[in-house]
Amino acid sequence: MIVVERFTKRYDERVAVDALEMRVAAGEIVGLAGPNGAGKTTTLRAITGILRPSSGRITVDGHDVVTEPVAAKRCLAFVPDDPPLFPSLTVWEHLVLASKLYGLRDWEARGAALLEQFDLADRRDTLADELSRGMRQKTAICAALVHEPRALLLDEPQMGLDPRGQQDLADAVHAIAAAGAAVLVSTHQLDDLEDLCTRFVILRGGRLVADGTRDELRARYPELPADASLKEIFFAATEGGARPAA
Amino acid sequence: MNPGLVWLLRGAPKRYLRGLRRKLRGVKGVLVVGASLVLVGFLVFAQVVQMLREHPDPQELAARARIFGPLWMLVITALSLVSPASRRGGLYFRPAEIGTLFPAPVSRRELLLYHVAGRAMIQTASALWLAVFVGRHAPTWYGCILGLVLALFFLQLVLQGSALLTAAIGRRLARPARVLALLLVAAAVVAGGIDVGRRLPPDAGVLAQAEALSQHVAVRIVSAPFVPFARTFAGTGPLDVLAWAAVSALLVGGALALLVRLDAAYEESALDMSADVRRKLERIRAGGSALAMMGPRRTGFSVPALPHWGGAGPIAWRQCVEIVRHARAVLTSLALLLVWPAIVLGVMHVTAPEDGEGVAAAGYVALPLVLVLSILSTQNIGFDFRRDYDRIAFLRSLPVTPFAIAAGQVAPVAVLLAAMQWLIASLVLLVVGTLPAPYLPLLFVPLLPVAWAVTAVDNLLCLLLPARFEPDDAANVGFMGKLMLLMFLKFAVLGVLAVVAALAGVVVYFVAGRHLAPAVLAALLVVTCADVLLTWLVALAFVAYDPARETPD
């Protein structure tokens, strides 16, 4: 569904992402992890077509994000970190906007159900700038899910959400993946990632340093204990505390 | 265009009214919006009355607009193209637009048209606002409005075109291209100026020189694209206005077609530009003025810690460090103030070099003018509560009394303002030569309590009526009304204080047998007492400020 082939992004002399190869298949939930400046947000922005690859190719559902941006974007939804909403639109109007941008019909029942699911039904007519950060996050998630995307990109989605909100988000992500969508989640909350994702991609300095399920990654670092957490694997991969097996 | 973009554009006026309605919640909101509207209404009314009272010859107005209109537009376009935002390149999109519209299935061209249409709405509002002030220079009101709207549209498209060109060819190539274009325009104007200077008699007036310059062939060539807009503005009848408006509209349409045809990949430069604008906006909000946009802070400088003074010392020290690290902004502010007495005294020296009394008189005119200007422009050095809206909760958590916090916040800016005024006054008096140099330090004594009062009033108003700038507020009549209201209130409070101090001075003057020194001391004593009272009021306003409820607009 999401295919990243030798994606490189340069800013003048600085290489933000270097020849990244990554795939997210339909129904998969992939966690994108890495230290600050590893290139996670750059990768997500390139997949959404906001940033142009310096070289390489990115496709979403077979559509190249550079040459067929509208077709590629029609399949995906992106929830950025601390999503900037339109301050003078209400919660419901954000869903209306999404429905119009994606050309939806008869979406109202799904929109209402999403608001209900994310505990926003009683905030339906509240303006975005009167919402707390968590509620803004939930609004952005509802607006992203209303068109039932086939590829969902989430940047730090758990930030600002209360435990109930985090659980609702996890349920929604699992549901959308079960329906065949490819989900890519970027976060520093490795504990959340561990519970949510089926596979993990770890970046460091713009390069891919690890890619696999938790068991596969664990096997790559024989020095780690058999029950090593994702956090321990992450440190091993990004700080070189343990050497990967050949 | 994508229906979502159309829906957003169509809803913009409704959302503006919704925002206005929100401000009307509560007595304070009603009072502020009401007072702002009254002030704006008064300003508009005054302009309209002046327009109706004057009966200039329409043909004369038209002739003047035809001559100077293209020249004005040329100057404004050139200035816009050398502005920092234009040099940076890139279209500005709000964070919500980047977060929501950039990943949406919207083509680049659709997004560009949305940007153009959105800016056009703002330009229309700006043109209507501008028409109030320049209307009396146009033969007809409809020509004035149409001319201004179309001219601002065109200017906006030129700037957007420049941004897209930068995105298309890269900043490295765009910069020299822009410099070359501007140099060519400057060369044409300079060549015209030299030629006009040769041909006109030396005693020709400034207006005659400007007219001759605008008619020079080189200047006419570079200002040619702006002629239809000036002619629309200068139209004397409906047919005249409509004909030139049609030509102007064709130019606007052509510029728009070129823009769309260019189809530059502007997303990344827009992302950079918008991030840059947000950073500057944060700095403006934190620094309280456009001068805060100036470059990065110098972290190498600091100031020694101040004594505790009941907690006021550390508070004042933090602001002193900010002042030192914004030295460029402070010095620019000072330089901007020094320009006025320099111009007045310079002109006096050139026109009457032998006239010592004339120079002294000019100094006495320039001095109060610049002191009033310094009081007006304290926003440029607002290193106090004005930059601390986001830190009120933190300040509230400190184990320091509100009065000490208020005093610590006000003191650095008061001292800085007094120092700036003292420097300007000393320079002017030294040039004029009416006060011997050894007495100059004494000048600081009366300036400090006055500067404290000015700073305290600024802080009091910023806590009672918080106001913060947004990029689109330039065309926001409500926001401008609020700024005018704040200025009015500031001068009202300071005016009352000046009257009370002056009365005290006059009474003591007569009681003390017509001696000036006790009268001045009495006036200063009144101002100093007022400083204590105002600082106490600032402390009360600081305590009453609710960070959760007060959202500065």
Please tally the β strands of chain B and state the result: 0
Q: Provide the β-strand percentage band of chain A.
A: 15-25%
Structural class by sheet pairing and helices of chain B: mainly alpha
Largest interface: A-B, 37 and 32 residues
Q: Biggest sheet of chain B, in brief?
A: none
Label the overall shape of chain A: globular
Number of helices of chain A: 9
Using the CA coordinates, give the radius of gyration of chain A. Answer: 18 Å
Describe this structure in words.
Chain A is of the alpha/beta class and 246 residues long. Helices cover 36% and strands 24% of the residues of chain A. Chain A is built from 9 helices and 10 strands. In chain A, strands 6-7-8-3-9-10 form a 6-stranded mixed beta sheet, with helices on both faces. In chain A, strands 2-1-4-5 form a 4-stranded antiparallel beta sheet, with helices on one face. Chain A is globular and about 55 Å long. The model of chain A has no long low-confidence stretch (mean pLDDT 87). The model of chain B has no long low-confidence stretch (mean pLDDT 81). Chain B is globular, with a radius of gyration of 27 Å. By secondary structure, chain B is mostly helical. Classes of the chains: A alpha/beta (246), B mainly alpha (553). Chains A and B meet through α2, β6 and α3 of A and α1, α2, α6 and α14 of B.
Write a brief structural summary.
Chain A is an alpha/beta fold and 246 residues long. Chain A has 9 helices and 10 strands.
Features:
heterodimer; A: 246 residues; alpha/beta; six-stranded mixed sheet; 10 strands; 36% helix; globular; B: 553 residues; mainly alpha; 22 helices; 76% helix; 0% strand
